[in-house]
Amino acid sequence: MLHVEMLRRGLLTWVSRVGGLLVLLCCSLSLLYVMTCSPPHSDNPPLTHVLPHAGSNHAKLGLIIGGGTGEIGGARAPAQSPPGAHSYQVLLQEREEQHRLYISSLKKQIAQLKEDLQERSEQLKKVQDSLKRDTGGPAARKESGTESQGGGHGDVQGVKSHQSDLQEFLRSQLAKAEVLSGTRFPSEYAVVPFESFTLQKMYQLEMGLTRHPEEKPVRKDKRDDLGEVMEVALRSLNTPPSPQDSRDAAGKRETSKVYTPSDFIEGITRTEKDKGSLYELTFRGESTSEFKRLTLFRPFGPLIKVKNERVDTANVLINIIVPLSRRTDKFKQFMHNFREVCVRQDGRVHLTVVYFGKEQMSEVRSTLENTSREVNFKNYTLLQLDEEFSRGRGLDVGARAWKAGNVLLFFCDVDIYFNADFLNTCRINTQPGKKVFYPVLFSQYNPSLIYGGPDHIPPVEQQLVIKKDTGFWRDFGFGMTCQYRSDFINIGGFDIDIKGWGGEDVHLYRKYLHSNLLVVRAPSRGLFHLWHEKHCVDELPPDQYRMCMQSKAMNEASHGQLGMLFFRQEIEAHLRKQKQQPNAQKI
After folding, report:
1. Which of 429, 540, 441, 447 is nearest to 483 (CA)?
2. Is 424 contained in some domain?
3. How many Cβ atoms from other residues are within 10 Å of residue 579's Cβ?
4. Which of 421, 425, 448, 419 is nearest to 437 (CA)?
5. Looking at 27-76, which runs of residues are DSSP E strands?
6. Range with the poorest average pLDDT among 118-132, 391-405, 426-440
7. What is the CATH number of the domain that holds 377?
8. Are 344 and 234 in the same domain?
9. Can you give the C-alpha Rg of the chain in angstroms?
10. 145-175 b/e with 16+ CB inside 10 Å = b?
11. What average pLDDT does range 514-519 have in this prediction?
12. Count of domains in the chain?
């Protein structure tokens, strides 16, 4: 019995030892398996969020790695092998490192571009400041020199080359762009005309068949451009003058006027594709005869203020010269407008009428005398030439007949209608020895065609609307012009050998283009050519007769209206067919 008990205890001890060994062996095997199959240690975050998921597109990664499912390096893996998680992780780490390097490179490039842009902006600002100091006089240049000595010598030398290059570029663009002085042109076709604009409208010459003579700035870049120009102009007008400007303006009346967009009257602008854009803006001043004139220039860069000048027109008299032969009914209509605009509204006008021949001379004299009595107007001169009509001859005689010093001349025709704003535009855009003004007037179409017959024509004042169907900018005419008498005499006047209609105005225009005077050519919204029937006489030379007929054709109607007239029979036939169709359906 004792022997059996001892045998049982020994068996239990052996079983417990064997069990412990088995447990120890299992733990060792488990630890060894974990150490063998676990991924290597990495400082990167876990990639479980980028490992392939069942049913997703990432499951196709095996195709990229081995060329087929379960293939790595082009060899097929055993069917019982576990997925290549380690290979996935290595590939994804390589891709992540490539993207990280690419993003870092982009950030460096962006930072470099920002630095270059900031440096270029600072250089342009320094050039503008340098230009302001150059125009500010010796005191400003002395102050600039003192500031330069205060900085480091190396910094000054580093910026100097860039400043000189940019400054030379800006000055060359200013010189080329006909801003401060005129440029000689070979012919009238080489001139880049201005466009005029107000706060709401643009008045442009190049219309084609889709654009209108008066329209709002449609393109956003044009609106933004004019908005920036207006902002810079108002800021310049409302900025207090510098000490140097105050010393230069000593003795002049100071003003505390705050300029707003409502003070803006009109502006003109043009862009020369190889030079830049020029802007001239006119604002109302302290009185009805005072204006502020700003000239800005954009040489394909930031805006530059060229001039800010005060223009006083209180004592600027305009001598309006009108050549005339018969046409007394048109002259009475002209005097009706003259009496209202020039006498009652403006009051700074002299009228010179050069009449050819003796027929109807008494009617012209009577019209002038009646106007003189009715509105107490004495500033007129009536000259008579007993010879064949020549517009150039009449204007030349009228200009030379003035003996009371230098005067502003406005060469006009009897069928022209203008308002008081145009007279101020004439004064502002001319300067003796420097500038002449060639406005482009708005020419009226035949009112009988526009309004559907002579019985529906409204009064003249209501016809003066700038629209595509009512008229066009007469950009081929150069007869209406504002210039000082001294410039007219110095340039040589008209070619008085030209007889009859046309040609003399183009010759005078070319003379100014060949001179050093600045020629301002821009559409004027206050100057109209009233329609009248043209008669091209057979006695005209072939070139003049061709010009007369071209002008006659363009004066009748717009392109669309002429088309309706040309196809009128076809249109009427179509309308008759349309009326007959309902009757045929009823039958």
Report:
1. 429
2. yes
3. 8
4. 425
5. 71-72, 75-76
6. 118-132
7. 3.90.550.10
8. no
9. 43
10. eeeeeeeeeeeeeebeebbeebbeebeebbe
11. 92
12. 3
291: its two tokens: 């204006």
Give the DSSP H/E element, type plus range, for residue 524.
strand 518-529
According to the model, what pLDDT value does residue 79 have?
Answer: 43
What torsion, rounded to 10 degrees, do the Cα atoms 182, 186, 192, 193 define?
80
Same-domain pairing of 568 and 557:
yes
Same domain, 365 and 500: yes
Give which of 352, 338, 285, 290 is closest to 316, Cα–Cα.
290
- For residue range 132-183, list pLDDT tens digits in order: 565 454 444 444 444 444 444 555 555 566 666 666 776 666 666 667 667 7
Residues 372 and 447 in one domain: yes
Lowest mean per-residue pLDDT among 58-67, 104-113, 439-448: 58-67
What are all long-range contacts of 509-514, with beta carbons under 8 Å and residues at least 24 apart? 509/188, 509/438, 509/478, 509/481, 510/187, 510/188, 512/436, 512/483, 512/487, 513/184, 513/185, 513/186, 513/187, 513/188, 513/190, 513/191, 514/184, 514/185
Which amino acid is located at 189 in the chain?
Y
CA angle centred on 320, ends 384 and 478, rounded to 5°: 100
Q: Give the three-state DSSP class for 39.
A: coil
C-alpha 104/C-alpha 344 separation (Å) is: 75
Claim to verify: residue 303 and residue 393 sit in the same structural domain: no
What is the pLDDT, as a whole number, of residue 255? 57
Strand bridging mode 408-411 / 318-324: parallel
Average pLDDT over residues 247-254: 49
Domain that holds residue 192: 188-238+261-312
State both tokens at 415: 């069928």
459 or 353: which carries more pLDDT confidence? Answer: 353
What three-state secondary structure class fits 432? Answer: coil
Residue 393, domain member (yes or no): yes
Least confident of 81-95, 508-522, 573-587: 81-95
CA dist., res. 81 & res. 169, Å (int) = 74
pLDDT band at 436 (very low <50, low <70, confident <90, very high): very high
In a domain, 523, yes or no: yes
Region for 42 from its dihedrals, namely left if φ exceeds 0, alpha if ψ lies in -120 to 50, beta otherwise: beta
Is there a single domain that holds both residue 223 and residue 351?
no
Do 448 and 381 reside in the same domain of the chain? yes
The token pair at 381 is 């001169």
Burial of 253 (0-12, 13-18, 19+ CB in 10 A): exposed
Report, in this order, helix, strand and coil percent for the chain, each rounded to 5: 50, 20, 35
- On whether both 483 and 527 belong to a single domain, the answer is yes
**pLDDT tens, position by position, 443-489:** 999 888 888 888 888 888 888 889 888 899 988 889 999 999 999 99
Chain segment 278-326, per-residue pLDDT in tens: 999 999 998 888 999 999 988 877 788 888 999 999 999 999 999 999 8
CA distance 576 to 156: 85
- The strand pairing partners of 383, in sequence order, are 354
